[in-house]
Design brief:
By secondary structure, this protein is an alpha+beta fold. It has a domain at 1-116: Beta Polymerase, domain 2. The protein is built from 19 helices and 11 strands. The strands form 3 sheets. It has a 7-stranded mixed β-sheet with strand order 3-4-5-2-1-8-9. Strand 6 (62-66) and strand 7 (74-78) form a beta hairpin. Helix 12 packs across helix 16 and helix 14 (264-281) packs across helix 16 (304-320). The longest helix is centred in the last third of the chain and has 24 residues, at 352-375. The protein is elongated, with a radius of gyration of 26 Å.
Length: 381
């Protein structure tokens, strides 16, 4: 029974990057032996165990055989006679198919160290093509490692193109697409994630309007907006909305978000950007009626923090399309309107429907005052 550190921890250590998660492979053991040592089994489909003290994952060496389409179409074989090399061969990229023995020796049967030096993302074997999720994983690694100069190997890109042509991408599980996309949005260069998918023709299957934008422009506004949003916010919803919100109509953005299985907060933010960006980047700061309507539409009264995030996303889209967002005036107007006190209006005798109308009228007056002051240059911070 031998234990090896594998995958990302070995890769990141060789790159001089911080190692966050450590995964282990155990060769020559059975599930019963692992349980006898106090490990707790967590893998339903194949034997993965948590270490009794560190809680790190220890997987028994395994092989996989394709038996159907998509991520779940695999038959897993795990037994004491499965070698370390057998286990490493089923991995996606050579830089992820290295192991480290307990004495520190690097086991590298597929040239991962050489590809680290050449800064190449290269597939381990033709079996790569059996799992369409690997296209997204390669794109995500490209987004992470692009600042170090990494690129997808030409032969791997060609294999990914063939996977798209064969229709294998159609079997991607939507939840997994979102999982990889969300992770990519938090990498150093999330735009590279979408560019790599465009290069292998996968993007047209997953986000058609973004693929169209990239076809006509090497650096389209949605990707510029995304990269500006990355500098301004760490929130997934803001980054996602900056990317998608300017791509299409609100209804199309909603349909696309649902097909991507984006969570509700991301969907809502992207739809709000699609619905309100043109107003807030255009006439709303000169039109109290329009600004009040936008604030109502965005529920800025009850969700001011979300509205702040919305302004960041729209501001990024504005910069990308050479339109300036007067967020100062918008925030001032909202603050003044939110300060309207229903209790004071009730004390004046307003009740029921009349109270609602009085609140709205007073909010409108305050918005109009702020916009007028700012227009004439008399605004105060």
């Amino acid at each position: 029974m031998q234990t090896y550190l594998v995958g990302g921890a070995v890769r990141d250590a060789l790159l001089g990057r911080a190692v966050k998660d450590r995964d282990w492979v155990v060769v020559g053991a059975t599930p019963d032996e692992m349980l006898a040592k106090g490990f707790r089994q967590v893998g339903a489909d194949f034997p993965v165990f948590l270490h009794p003290e560190t809680q790190e994952e220890y997987a028994l060496a395994r092989t996989e055989r394709k038996k159907g389409h998509g991520y779940h179409g695999f038959e897993v074989h795990s037994a004491p006679d499965v070698t370390l090399e057998d286990d490493l061969r089923r991995r996606d990229l050579t830089i992820n198919a290295m192991a480290q023995a307990e004495d520190g020796t690097i086991i590298d049967p597929f040239g991962g160290q050489h590809d680290l030096e050449r800064k190449l993302l290269r597939h381990v074997s033709p079996a790569f093509s059996e799992d369409p999720l690997r296209i997204l994983r390669v794109a995500r690694f490209a987004a992470r490692l692009e600042p170090l100069g990494f690129r997808v190997a030409p032969e791997t890109n060609e294999l990914m193109r063939e996977m798209v042509r064969s229709g294998e991408v159609e079997h991607l599980v939507p939840e997994r697409i979102w999982q990889e996309t969300q992770r990519a949005l938090h990498e150093h260069r999330p735009d590279v994630y979408f560019r790599v998918m465009q290069d292998c023709d996968a993007l047209s299957r997953l986000i058609p309007p973004l693929a169209n934008a990239l076809t006509s422009n090497a650096n389209p506004a949605p990707l510029r907006a995304l990269m500006l949003a990355v500098q301004l916010s760490s929130h997934t919803a803001v980054r996602y909305a900056a990317l998608l919100g300017g791509l299409d109509t609100p209804l199309a953005v909603e349909d696309l978000s649902q097909s991507l299985r984006a969570p509700n907060d991301c969907q809502a933010m992207a739809i709000l950007v699609a619905t309100s960006a043109d107003d807030l980047l255009g006439p709303a700061t000169e039109d109290p009626d329009l600004l009040l309507a936008v604030l109502d539409r965005c529920d800025a009264w009850r969700r001011p923090e979300r509205f702040d995030d919305l302004l960041i996303a729209i501001g990024a889209l504005g910069q990308a399309t050479l339109r300036e967002l007067d967020s100062h005036s918008i925030k001032q107007a909202l603050e003044a309107a939110r300060a309207v006190d229903p209790q004071a209006l009730m004390a004046e005798g307003h009740t029921g429907k009349a109270l609602g109308e009085a609140i709205r009228r007073t909010r409108h007056q305050r918005i109009a005052t702020v916009l007028k002051q700012n227009k004439t240059g008399n605004h105060h911070d």
